[in-house]
Specification:
Elements (H helix, E strand, L loop, with lengths): L1 H5 L4 H9 L1 E6 L6 H10 L3 H4 L5 E3 L6 E3 L10 H7 L4 E4 L12 E4 L21 E2 L3 H5 L11 H4 L16 H25 L4 E4 L3 H9 L12 H7 L2 H19 L6 E4 L3 E2 L20 E2 L1 E7 L7 E7 L3 H8 L4 E2 L18 E2 L20 H14 L7 H24 L3 H14 L4 H14 L2 H13 L12 H11 L3 H14 L4 H13 L3 H14 L4 H13 L3 H14 L4 H13 L3 H14 L4 H13 L4 H14 L3 E6 L6 H10 L42 E3 L13 E8 L2 H11 L9 H19 L4 E7 H6 L1 H11 L6 H7 L10
Parallel strand pairs: 1-12, 4-5, 4-7, 13-14, 15-16, 15-17, 17-18
Antiparallel strand pairs: 1-11, 2-3, 5-6, 8-11, 9-10
C-alpha cells in the first residue's frame, strides 16, 4: 500500500492516512478468513464464536457445505446494533449465509458468486438476501464475468492477448475475481444510496483472491518464476490495490463528515523474500502465503489525525466500534477498546451481550446448529435405518470437514495457551489419522509446552517413521523439532550442537534463527541470542517475537532503556503479549519510571491476573514509590489467596554443599524430589538433582510435584521460581577457593589452578541471586555455612530444624554426614 500511496496511485488511501489513524493489525491463528472475519464481527476468539473453517458437515445431506452463519455461537455486532435500534447494511460478510433478519439489509457471501455455465439463468441463491423482496431489486446490478471486456482486463494484464488460455486459467480466474468484487461494490453503494442506515459493513475478498492467484508474479521476480509469466502477470496485484482504492474513493464521496470509517484487513500477504515457493497439499495451505500483519485505519469525527496505532488485533475492532457508538462492551469479549479517539469516550461494560434478553435479529433456535451433535444424530438415524446412507465418499468428505475444523480448533487453543484442551483435541485427531504430519508435529509442540519430554520424543520418533511417500512430511523440519525436544529434555549441549549445525546449512531460515535466539538465551549466551534475533529482523522487520527476544536479552544485561524500546516495538506489533508487557514494566521500574511501570504491570494483569511477579513488583512500588495502600493491599491479598503449597529449596553454587544438605534433610525425615538415576555428563558427580529443574526458565508446570518436599535449585535459577508458591530456602555458602578446588577435582582438572574469571563470575551470580531473594515476599530464607555444618554439625542441624518448624530428626541428620566424603560432595 505505502509505495502505491507515495507514488500517487492510491489517493483515497492517502486521504484516510493523513486525516485519520493507521497501523498494523495482528491476525489470529490459524489465519483462515471465515474464522477471522467472525472474530472481527464478535470481538472473540474462534473457540468462543464457533466458526472453525471453510466448510462443515451438513447434517441434512450427510455431506459437507460451506461454513454457515447458523454455526456461529455468539452474537455479532449487527445483532447488537439491531437490539439497540440501529439500522444496518451488511454486504458479503464471510460467513453470513443464510442471512439473519436484522433491521436493515443483509446480503450473504453466496450472493455474488456467478454460475459460469452458458445459457443457465443466474438466479439469486435462496437465503442470500434479507429482506427476501430485496433480491429482485438488486439482482440486475450484479456483474457477471461474461459481461467483462478487454477494457476491464487490460489494467491488470496489459498483455492479456499473449496469455495462452489453454495452458493457464489466469484470465478466467481474473474475470471471476473482478466480477465478484464489482458485484459487492455495486450492491453496497446501491444500499447506501437507496436506504436509511446507521451502520454499513462491506466485505471484499478480492485482494485476498488476487494475491493468492498472482502474488507469486509480483516484483521482485522470484527465481523459480519464468520470465514470460513474470512479465505477463507482474502488474496484477498493484492493479488490484488501485482498483480497491477507486472503490474506496466512491465511499468517501458518498458519506458526510459525521461518518466514522473503519478500514480493516484480516491479515496481510507476503510480497517479498518470504513468499513460499511451494505449498503442502492441505486445505489450509494457502494461509502460508499470509503475512500475520494486516492493516487498520480509523477516519472520521473524534478520531486522531495523521497518527499511527500500535498493537491492534482483530478482536479489538468490535469493542472499539461499540465504544464509538457509546454502547457497552461485553466483558466476555477478548478484545479491547483501541486508543484511536482524540478524546477517549467513557467505556461501559456488561457481562455479556449473549445473556441479554430481547430481539437481536437472529436466526430462530430451530435454524441454529450444533454441528457435532447434528452429525451424531445423523449417524444414529443412518445406523437405525431411518435415513439412507449417503455413501462412503460423502461420509469421508463429512468426516474430513469435521477433522479439519477440529484441527483448527486445536490451533486456536494452542495460540491461547490452553495446552490441556489442545492436547485433548489433538489426541482424538491422532487416533483417527496417525499419518497426518500436522497432528504429530503439533502434539510435539504441545508436549514441549507442557514439559513432557518423554511424550514429545515418542511423537518425534513416530513422525520420523512416517513413510517418505507422505507428501507433506517434507514440509516439517524434523531436525528443528529434534532440537526443540532436546531442549525440553534439558540436553542443552546436544540441542545447541544440533541447532548450530542447522544454522550453518540454513543461515537465512527465520524459524531456525528464532529457535537459536531462544536456545542461546537459555544457555546464557546472550550475545549469540541477540545476533539471531537481529538476523530475524533483517528478513522480517515486523517480527514481534524477535523484538521480544531482544527486550529480554537487554533486560538480562541491564540495558533497561533498550529493553523498554524493544518491548514497546514487540507490543506495538502484537499487543496481547503478557511476557512483553512484563519486560516493559521491569525495564521501566529499573529506570525509575514508576508511574509508567505501574501502567505496564496493571495492563499485564488484565491479560493474566495470575502473574505473581507483576503483582509482587506492584506491591513494592505501591509501598515505596507511589504510596497507595488500597492497591497494595489488593495485590497482597490476591497473592496470599492464590499462593499454593510450600516448597523447601536447597540452593547455592555447584560444590557448595547443596547435596550434603539434601542428604541431611532426607535423613532428618523430609522427602526430597530428585531422579538420582539420571547422571548428568555435563556435571560429573552430581547428586540429588531433579532433571526438570534445568527447565525452570521456560517450564514451571511440574513444580506442583515439589510441594511439601525438598528441591535442589542452583543459585542462578532461583529467580525463575514462580510467585505462586511459598518457599523456604536454604542457601549453602562455602569459601570460593574450596568450591573451585572441589569442582576441579570432579572435572579431573588440576586442583591447584585457580580460575580467576570463573571465581568472579560465580560471585556475580551469587550477588544477583541474593539481590533477588531480598526483594521477594513469599520466601523464608536462611544462609548456612558449609564449614559450620562440618565443624559444628549438631549446632547447624538444630538451627536448620528450628528454621523448618522442628520437623527434623536432628540425631539422624548428624549421623548422615560421612566426613570422609564431605570434600567431594557438591
Amino acid at each position: 500500500i505505502m509505495p502505491l500511496v507515495d507514488a500517487g496511485k492510491m489517493p483515497a488511501m492517502k486521504k484516510i492516512i493523513e486525516g485519520g489513524i493507521i497501523g498494523n493489525i495482528a491476525t489470529l491463528d490459524p489465519p483462515l478468513s471465515p474464522m477471522l472475519w467472525t472474530s472481527i464481527a464478535t470481538g472473540k476468539f474462534a473457540d468462543k464464536h464457533g466458526i472453525l473453517g471453510f466448510s462443515e458437515p451438513d447434517a441434512k445431506t450427510g455431506s459437507i457445505r460451506s461454513v454457515n452463519s447458523t454455526s456461529r455461537t455468539t452474537r455479532a455486532i449487527w445483532n447488537i446494533l439491531h437490539n439497540q435500534g440501529y439500522t444496518s447494511n451488511v454486504i458479503g460478510w464471510w460467513p453470513s449465509h443464510p442471512v439473519e433478519p436484522i433491521r436493515g439489509a443483509m446480503i450473504s457471501n453466496f450472493y455474488q458468486r456467478a454460475k459460469l455455465t452458458p445459457g443457465r439463468k443466474w438466479s439469486v441463491v435462496p437465503g442470500s438476501v434479507h429482506p427476501e423482496a430485496l433480491a429482485k431489486e438488486i439482482a440486475p446490478i450484479r456483474v457477471h464475468p461474461a459481461e467483462l471486456t478487454d477494457q476491464h482486463i487490460l489494467p491488470f494484464i496489459p498483455n492479456a492477448a499473449k496469455v495462452d488460455q489453454k495452458e493457464t486459467p489466469a484470465l478466467e480466474t481474473l474475470t471471476k475475481i473482478i466480477a465478484d468484487t464489482a458485484t459487492i461494490h455495486s450492491t453496497a453503494t446501491y444500499m447506501m444510496d437507496n436506504s436509511e442506515w446507521d451502520f454499513t459493513a462491506v466485505y471484499f475478498d478480492g485482494i485476498d483472491h488476487f494475491c493468492h492467484g498472482f502474488m507469486k508474479f509480483h516484483p521482485p521476480q522470484l527465481k523459480h518464476i519464468p520470465d514470460d509469466l513474470f512479465h505477463l502477470f507482474k502488474d496484477v496485484v498493484n492493479g488490484a490495490y488501485i482498483f480497491h482504492d477507486m472503490m474506496l474513493e466512491t465511499y468517501l464521496n458518498m458519506v458526510d463528515d459525521d461518518t466514522l470509517i473503519v478500514l480493516v484487513s484480516d491479515h496481510g500477504f507476503h510480497s517479498g523474500a518470504l513468499r513460499p515457493r511451494t505449498l503442502p497439499k492441505l486445505a489450509a495451505a494457502p494461509a502460508m502465503e499470509h503475512n500475520p500483519l494486516g492493516i487498520l485505519c480509523f477516519y472520521g469525527p473524534g478520531i486522531k489525525k495523521d497518527e499511527r496505532i500500535y498493537g491492534a488485533s482483530l478482536i479489538d475492532v468490535c469493542p472499539t466500534i461499540l465504544a464509538a457508538l457509546n454502547l457497552p462492551v461485553g466483558l466476555d469479549m477478548d478484545g479491547r477498546v483501541l486508543d484511536v479517539f482524540s478524546e477517549l469516550p467513557e467505556v461501559n461494560f456488561i457481562e455479556s451481550w449473549d445473556k441479554m434478553e430481547g430481539d437481536f435479529g437472529e436466526h430462530d433456535d430451530l435454524m441454529k446448529e450444533d454441528v457435532e451433535a447434528s452429525i451424531e444424530t445423523l449417524q444414529q438415524l443412518i445406523d437405525l435405518g431411518y435415513i439412507e446412507d449417503p455413501g462412503e465418499n460423502q461420509k469421508a468428505a463429512r468426516e474430513n470437514a469435521y477433522k479439519e475444523n477440529q484441527y483448527n480448533l486445536s490451533r486456536v487453543l494452542m495460540s491461547r495457551r490452553k495446552t490441556d484442551e489442545a492436547l485433548d483435541v489433538l489426541l482424538k485427531l491422532y487416533e483417527q489419522d496417525s499419518n497426518d504430519v500436522r497432528f504429530i508435529s503439533d502434539l510435539i509442540q504441545v508436549y514441549i509446552a507442557k514439559g513432557d519430554a518423554r511424550e514429545a520424543r515418542k511423537c518425534l520418533s513416530e513422525l520420523g517413521n512416517l513413510s517418505d511417500d507422505n507428501a507433506n512430511k517434507r514440509f516439517v523440519n524434523i531436525d528443528l523439532l529434534d532440537a526443540r525436544v532436546l531442549l525440553c529434555e534439558n540436553k542443552f549441549l546436544k540441542a545447541e550442537a544440533r541447532l548450530r549445525e542447522l544454522l550453518e546449512h540454513r543461515p537465512n531460515s527465520i524459524s531456525l534463527q528464532k529457535e537459536g535466539g531462544k536456545l542461546f538465551y537459555n544457555l546464557g549466551k546472550i550475545n549469540d541470542s541477540t545476533r539471531c534475533f537481529e538476523k530475524v529482523l533483517r528478513f522480517d522487520p515486523y517480527n514481534s517475537f524477535a523484538f521480544y527476544g531482544l527486550a529480554r536479552n537487554c533486560l538480562f544485561n541491564g540495558k533497561y532503556r533498550d529493553a523498554a524500546d524493544h518491548a514497546l516495538s514487540s507490543i506495538g506489533i502484537v499487543f496481547h503479549q503478557p511476557k512483553a508487557h512484563y519486560i516493559l514494566g521491569e525495564a521501566l521500574y529499573h529506570l525509575g519510571m514508576y508511574d509508567k511501570s505501574v501502567d505496564a504491570f496493571e495492563l499485564l494483569l488484565t491479560m493474566n491476573e495470575y502473574h505473581m511477579n507483576a503483582r509482587s513488583r506492584l506491591v513494592e512500588i505501591y509501598s515505596k514509590f507511589i504510596i497507595d495502600d488500597a492497591k497494595r493491599v489488593t495485590h497482597e491479598q490476591f497473592i496470599e489467596k492464590h499462593k499454593k503449597g510450600t516448597i523447601t529449596v536447597v540452593s547455592g553454587l555447584p560444590h557448595s554443599g547443596t547435596s550434603l544438605m539434601m542428604q541431611m534433610l532426607e535423613a532428618g525425615g523430609l522427602e526430597t524430589l530428585h531422579d538420582i538415576e539420571n547422571s548428568d555428563t555435563d556435571n560429573p558427580g552430581s547428586n540429588y538433582e531433579y532433571e526438570k529443574v534445568k527447565s525452570l526458565p521456560r517450564n514451571k508446570s511440574w513444580l506442583n510435584l515439589a510441594e511439601g518436599k525438598v528441591l535442589k535449585v542452583p543459585a542462578g535459577l532461583l529467580k525463575f521460581l514462580p510467585k505462586t508458591y511459598k518457599y523456604r530456602i536454604i542457601i549453602m555458602q562455602r569459601d570460593m577457593r574450596e568450591i573451585l578446588r572441589s569442582q576441579q577435582i570432579a572435572l579431573k582438572r588440576d586442583p591447584d589452578v585457580y580460575p580467576m574469571g570463573l571465581a568472579e563470575s560465580f560471585r556475580k551470580e551469587l550477588n544477583m541471586a541474593n539481590e533477588w531473594l531480598e526483594s521477594q515476599t513469599n520466601i523464608d530464607l536462611i544462609h548456612v555455612m558449609y564449614s559450620s555444618v562440618i565443624d559444628n554439625t549438631l549446632g547447624s542441624s538444630s538451627e536448620i530444624n528450628q528454621f523448618l518448624d522442628y520437623q527434623l530428626n536432628v540425631s539422624n541428620m548428624v549421623n548422615a554426614i560421612e566426613r570422609s566424603l564431605c570434600h567431594n560432595m557438591n
